Batch of 3 targets.
Target 1
Amino acid sequence: MIKAILTDIEGTTSAIAFVHETLFPFARQRMDAFVRTHANEPRVQAQLDAVSEEVGTPLCLDMAIETLCQWIDEDRKVTPLKTLQGMVWQEGYRSGELKGHVYADAVEALRAWHAQGLKLYVYSSGSVQAQKLIFGHTEYGDLTPLFSGYYDTNVGHKREAASYRAIAGDIGLAPEQVLFLSDVEEELDAAAEAGMAATQLVRPGEGVPGSRHDKAVDFSEISLGS
């Protein structure tokens, strides 16, 4: 019996276009100024140090910023980048320049599942901070009270079964009691290898369906089994 649902964001609860056409350009345009303005703050300095660790050599501020912008252009799933992007987006959400996109069908299902007593969790390559910002500033209001926890790449990469085992262990459930939702087949493969149930979201115009998992065009078609 499914007792918890673990969901991806991009292409699953939210449009891929929102991330690539709104969030990424917003961070790209503001990263340089943000880092220079806040470089002496411990929270930012820690991430700049992590950038140097990632490339394997100490970087000056200019080189660190250049590397961050290059990673944005390459859509790299690198933790210090995701963390700094989250900080930039936080300013945008607070100012009202950004509003998190979540599909209406996802909102309806998440609210219904929460009301039924199911535990809801998020697992995204975006930082936990960025996840909370998306769900905390939507046109449907603050959705963060629906979720019991958030996971990002600090728990492990999304295409590795060990990450899903770690999440199940942290949640305190057997993997088979958790349903993972994603649009990416390789992520679903990893979750299934870990023992989780898996459903692929195949939203029109957003990705190519695989062949090994249950599929749904939106959240209304997701089956939790018996």
Target 2
Amino acid sequence: MNEKLRAKLAAGETAFGLWVTSEASAVTEVAGMLGIDWICIDMEHGYLTFKDIQGHLQAARGTDMTVLVRPPSQDLEPIKRALDVGAHGIILPLVDDAAEVRAAYDHFYYPPLGRRGIGGERSVKWGLDLEAYVQSANDELMFIPMIETQKSYDNLDEILSVEKIEHIFLGPGDMSASRGAVGEWEGPGVTELNLDILRRATERGISSGIVARNTDEAIMRRDQGFGMVSLGSDIGLMIRQMKEMASALGNETVGHRWF
């Protein structure tokens, strides 16, 4: 698991990804065909179920694409079930401090690092590959906390000091909201704050990820040194393309205004 992604990050390259919000497994299938490095299936927002997650994982089978899940909370059930269904790691939302990271470790790692229970689900090929999986999972799975609150920024050094933290992911929108700029992507001071997080993580050998909202922003984030850059979300990319086409067509087709 995660061999291609870890190799890119270790080499200082940018790994481009996709945020998946639709239940359509064809999205993941096409992402794999296009050579996307990683996807994050978002359960924090929206309506996706664990059955949907399994469909995306099945669509990614046979590729070297990393499939991460953002669970809806830091609780035992969503983390454990995402891993049991076969996710290659999680992006943990709304982390405030190192204590929350270590608490989530209990659900994420097998003993002695955590308390994850051993089951016979899809991750272990329904028991056919149980021994190999449980022996390697603690080293191969990726645990990525999100730095997206003012509290997490205030506690950044202690979060980055937690054992086994290899990567973090930034959330500018929620960071802005936590600082009073609700609804803004990068509210006052957040642009500088994001770059400070990137710098401090890089100094510790920890890579940082972020979502880009358009091509120019993806290029900018790559050039700034972000290791994981999302090209956007599946639905967001569709909307972006449709709006660009509508604009080029004068916003009208067959007498109906699109946007």
Target 3
Amino acid sequence: MNKFSHLDRNGKARMVDVSGKAVTTREAVARGAISMKKATLALILTNQVAKGDAISTARIAGIMAAKNTPGLIPLCHPLQISSVGIDFYFERKKGQIVIESRVNVTGQTGVEMEALTAVTVAALTIYDMCKAVDKEMVISDIMLVEKRGGKSGVFLRS
């Protein structure tokens, strides 16, 4: 197991110095899900949520979250993100929405945290917009699916 790069030799938290790292194109894909009553999903799919278009709002919230990750997660580097995409997949029989984010940057550090933050905030936004009709929604399975670029190369979840 590798040692934690965010700890100095005394075990204290620090921001990693990336100044010596090569500038490369980097990409991260994250995924998560929000499960709900089938009736709640039906409201979302027919755009009948009282607060408005839950999917468009969640997409914008996810994009904004990726761009603001360094303000939310301590020690994250501010990045000049090239693109953020958020997609939604509807599992009607399960009453579930699968959310996937894809974040790209050309820089000295990766965008895994930005992709994970995008998925999380998109799911939280759906929860917020639908909580009046379904307080039992569950946000789950948030994970890194894929990462490309940088010294560590490619990661693909099996």
